[in-house]
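U., I forgot to send this yesterday:
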Amino acid sequence: MIDILHHLDLIDLIGERHVQLRHLTEKGWNEQSDINISTSEWFILTRIFQKQPVTISGVAKQVDISRQASHKLIKQLKEKGLVEIQNMEHNKKEKSIKLTVLGLECYEKNQFLKAELESKIAEKIGLEQVKVLKEILKLDWGV
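Result:
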């Protein structure tokens, strides 16, 4: 894997590491939980956690996947008991979505798993390097 990374540009390097880290977090979760949650489902859960309640159409726009795919993922999350869907009070066409107690528990446990992975990365590359990387990623890149 490392040999492949040496020949990639910035965009592909970020992409490869993102895929690798998402795979590790999904695998770590699925090894310790009876509720399997895909990377796409985690992406939606994160968006819901950040702003609750949120409309289903709002989630679809945020995750940059088709409306049909986002509805399918949200339905799967509902079947797993991780989210609840409600009619909006002032808009009959729109529905809101929020995490259930179980969804919130899963989200928080997953945050802990990601923190453990971040610690392992820091052990390997250094805490200061991780801090610098996080600060660089938070900067306004003007793109």
